[in-house]
Amino acid sequence: KNIVILISGGGSNMAAIVRAAQQGDWRRTLDAQVAAVISNRADAGGLAFAKEHQIPTEVVDHKRFPTREAFDAELAAAIDRRQPSLLVLAGFMRILTPGFVQRYEGRMVNIHPSLLPAFPGLHTHRRAIEEGCKFSGATVHRVTAELDHGPILTQAAVPILPDDTEEALAARILTQEHLLYPRAIAALLPSL
Ligand code: GRF
After folding, report:
1. Atom of ligand 1 nearest to the CA of 90
2. Given 99, 113, 159, 186, which residue has the most CB atoms within 10 angstroms?
3. What does pTM read for this prediction?
4. Could you list the residue range(s) of the whole structural domain that residue 25 is in?
5. Alpha-carbon torsion (74, 75, 76, 79), positive or negative
């Protein structure tokens, strides 16, 4: 089955998914072809990794479009050319229009670096530390019209340690994201 991954930055989650799809022992469980990696930024670090791994890449620069609707229409056209069973958001930093969300309803997932429904949006690690939370983590969820909401598919929890910094917590969570996201996709794909 084809999957398309949307990124905006470093793309370490995308890289983890590509590795899981390409490596021998994973192929049996993550039976997926990464048909394209699409970025809204030409300077997204993850594009180089995708190219090195023979994944087709595309840039749809949001700044070229007058409205979110126009950007989303072009993005949808780029996605649909690859005929994906599943659309994977991996550090994709654009708010999606309701029309776009509806188009991929039931076949679009996102990963967020908190234990949703706690701390949707930005600065999750800082907020979790400031609140005195003892645990945080990562959530893979289906995408609905509301940002960082939608039915939860799976989560991983990590401890927040005394004197944790935002950076230390982010790194601890990101390590878990790289394990969680390929597994969540492998679990979901057979039903699509
Ligand atoms: C991850 O923490 C992800 O949960 C969040 O943005 C970060 C993206 O990192 N949505 P990367 O681009 O996958 O390295």
Report:
1. 13
2. 113
3. 0.96
4. 2-191
5. positive
Torsions phi, psi for 68 (to 5 deg):
-60, -35
Q: What is the pLDDT of residues 78-120, one digit of tens each?
A: 999 999 999 999 999 999 999 999 999 999 999 999 999 999 9
Does the beta carbon of 91 sit less than 6 angstroms from any atom of ligand 1? Answer: yes
Give the residue whose CA is nearest to atom 1 of ligand 1: 91
Dist. CA 100–CA 78, nearest whole Å: 13
CATH number reported for the structural domain that contains residue 175 in this entry: 3.40.50.170
Nearest CA, atom 9, ligand 1: 91
Domains identified in the chain, total number: 1
Catalytic residue set: 112
Cα of 2 to ligand 1 centre, how many Å?
Answer: 21
Any idea which residue has 């509301």 for tokens? 146
d(CA 16, CA 185): 11
| Ligand 1 atom closest to the CA of 9, numbered from 1 | 12
